Amino acid sequence: MKKFKFSLDKLQNYKEQILESEKNTLGILRSELHALNSELDGLISLINLKSDELAHMMIRSVTPTDFAASKRFITFKQQEVHTLRRAITLKEEEIERQLEVVIGTTKEVNTLEKLEERQLEEYKYAALKEDELFIEEFVSNQRTRQQMIQ
Fold it and tell me: Whole-angstrom Cα distance, residue 53 to residue 71?
């Protein structure tokens, strides 16, 4: 009997390559999300620092121009925080969509693996039957030879 070869081997390899590609894309998206979160943390820290400076400026009696400039800076950074939070939300949604793609592709690969296992079991069963037939034929031939000799 010839060696076992899964009939959908090329499709399975293709799906596994797609799965790896989708997982890599998911990893990149998660890395980008991490970078956005780090940037957000930095902006929030900067805003807190500038807010503290602004509070100290009020105590030291600074000019209205300096106070207004600091206030505008803080407002601008708060707008950046808002924009960054929106980008983070969009990135999280993109990650969710990509995760669904990875899950779907994983299911396809698992289905092909189960199909391969079934085909292998059928192959083994057919090989076993072939061996049994060979043994029966061999035993039958031996009996026939012994009867001819006697």
Answer: 10
pLDDT tens for 98-136 read 999 999 999 999 999 999 999 999 999 988 998 899 898
pLDDT in tens, 65-106: 888 888 899 999 999 999 999 999 999 999 999 999 999 999
Q: Say what the pTM is.
A: 0.72
Percent residues over pLDDT 70 in the chain: 99
Give DSSP secondary structure letters for the chain: -PPP--TTHHHHHHHHHHHHHHHHHHHHHHHHHHHHHHHHHHHHHHHHHHHHHHHHHHHHT--HHHHHHHHHHHHHHHHHHHHHHHHHHHHHHHHHHHHHHHHHHHHHHHHHHHHHHHHHHHHHHHHHHHHHHHHHHHHHHHHHHHHHH-
Cα 15 off chain centre by:
13
